[in-house]
Amino acid sequence: MNNELTRQSSPDDMSWGSFTESGPWVIDRAAVAWLPLAAKLRRAAQAEVPSLTKGSKLPPGTRVFTVTRHLGGALIPWLIRKRLGRYGSTEVSRADVSLRLRKAAEQLGPTYIKLGQIISSGDGLFPAELVNEFKLCRDKVAPEPWADVRLTVETDLGARIEDIFSFFDTTPLAAASIAQVHAATLRTGEQVVVKVQRPTVSTRVRRDLRVMAWLAPHLVGRIPIAALANPPALVELFAETIVEELDFRMEAANMLDMARVLKDLKQDGFVIPRPHPKLVTRRVLVMERVSGFNFDDVIGMTDAGIDTEAVVRSGMIAFMEGAMIEGLFHGDLHGGNMFVLADGRTALLDFGIVGRLSDERRLAFLRLMLGATTNDIKGQVAALRDLGALPKDTDLDAVIRDLNLDQPTIDPTTLNGEELVKEVQRVVKALLGYGARLPKELMLYVKNMVFLDGAIARLAPNLDILAEVANISMLFAERHGERLGRELGVDASAMEVNLDGMKASFGLPAATESLTYRDLQARRDLIQKRMRDHVGR
User: Fold this and answer.
1) Following DSSP, what letter does each residue of 473-534 receive, concatenated?
2) Phi–psi pair at 360, nearest 5 degrees
3) Burial of residue 406, with CB atoms counted within 10 A of its CB: 0-12 exposed, 13-18 middle, 19 or more buried
4) For range 34-54, the mean pLDDT
5) CA atoms of 183 and 192, how far apart (whole Å)
């Protein structure tokens, strides 16, 4: 290694990036060979999506039959047992089908495992049994044989492992759908993590996307979740996300971009591991090794004197600021992608999926947030249209009427199971009638919000949600008021926080002054139980 990579006590790259203080090397962006390629690679990946998701009349190869066999083998026995009344409860039935689907996904390989990982981050969006089962797909997938890992590393880095590393653990720290990670030590002494792509994953993902694109139209209207999700659009959305994960040079560039954004926003509660300036290829990514508490380890953090409420609060602010001020945010937050350091800062990991907003969509996000905190219903619907969730020619007033957004709030806890199910069906039918869809950036944003929602449940259950939203709104006004006013054409100093609309979304009367997460979760549990009991009859 050259002297330019030697450890420094106060790295120069901390002047522009949110990194650790004692870095194993210094990142000079002008000298990083793989960095200029990233934007070109990103454009090429997205340009490939239409061809991968183009529907076809004939099945794209024998893979269709393999997929059908595994999914059918999972679902048909479950359906038979369910119709025969072999399950004692709805929960037992869901647990069984969730297990069967997880095993089928693992048998089908990386693409379906990745789908499982997305489901695993959907607490509150998917049944708890399905979410919990697919959490096993995050980092407990069967690893690749060591011989294949070694071949990939040596082929991509152009040297024997022994010539680059003094130590390379043959047992991975974690193995997921696209890659697995190994602890290692460079011959110059730096402790690193090496992310290694599975050898055939690039080919298999592209083949599976073509199969999904062929199957998707046949699922339209056949199962409730497919009707809501719009299967062809979901496949396109999934393709847009996963193709960028197949080249680690894009991921390494994402790490540097995110480090810069966090530094610019003065978000001192986060650090990004440094990717190695030279040891990054399409299938291998060497990065600084950081360690800390698992994001779910509340007891460990509390015993270490870490303020878990502060951890959650800084996460909420950084995530929202990144999206709305800089147009960049981590697109796949979950407990396996975050470590809490001993000093309370959070290290963000795994940047294969990153949300990047055009200026138009970033401003739409800003208007959406502004509308939520000032109770501007039409402004929120217009912002969703501009984000691509509704067609450009949508009649906003009609949407507001059809969704009853202009009517007094109905507390959902006062409805019985049948009434709740009918209300959900009514809203879904209205949205589908308007051609509603879920754009990639909005999907990533919502998924992250769901994760943060769950993080509050674990780390800060007594947090006052309404007070936090008001505080974050004031913080945005203080930090970015001038810019917000300029970009949105409003007088930021005259804006007043009005959370009536947010209270209405929770089914709360406008007079409600506080709502802890614990109280909110109790309301959700009651609503979900009534719906489950009705559906399970």
Assistant:
1) HHHHHHHHHHHHHHHHTS-GGG----THHHHHHTT--TT----BHHHHHHHHHHHHHHHHHH
2) -60, -45
3) exposed
4) 94
5) 6
Q: CB within 8 A of 70, min separation 6: which ones?
A: 104, 107, 108
Residue 452, exposed/middle/buried by CB under 10 A (0-12, 13-18, 19+)? middle
Q: How many CB atoms lie within 10 A of CB 529?
A: 11
Task: Characterize the bridge pairing of strands 275-280 and 270-271.
Answer: unpaired
Residue 519: per-residue pLDDT = 87
What are the tens digits of pLDDT across the range 116-125? 877 777 665 5
Distance CA 2, CA 279 (A): 13
Tokens of 432: 């589908």
What region does 109 belong to: left with phi over 0, alpha with psi -120 to 50, or beta? Answer: left
Alpha-carbon torsion (346, 440, 246, 28), positive or negative: negative
Q: Where would I find the H helices in 276-406? A: 298-303, 308-321, 359-374, 377-386, 396-402
Give Cα 295 to chain centroid, integer Å: 15
3-state secondary structure of 123: strand
Report the predicted TM-score, pTM, of the whole model to 2 decimal places: 0.87
Q: What is the pLDDT of residues 142-160, one digit of tens each?
A: 899 999 999 999 999 999 9
Cβ 141 vs Cβ 153: under 8 Å: no
Sheet holding 293-294, edge to edge: 270-271, 346-348, 338-340, 293-294
Token couple for 516: 């802890």
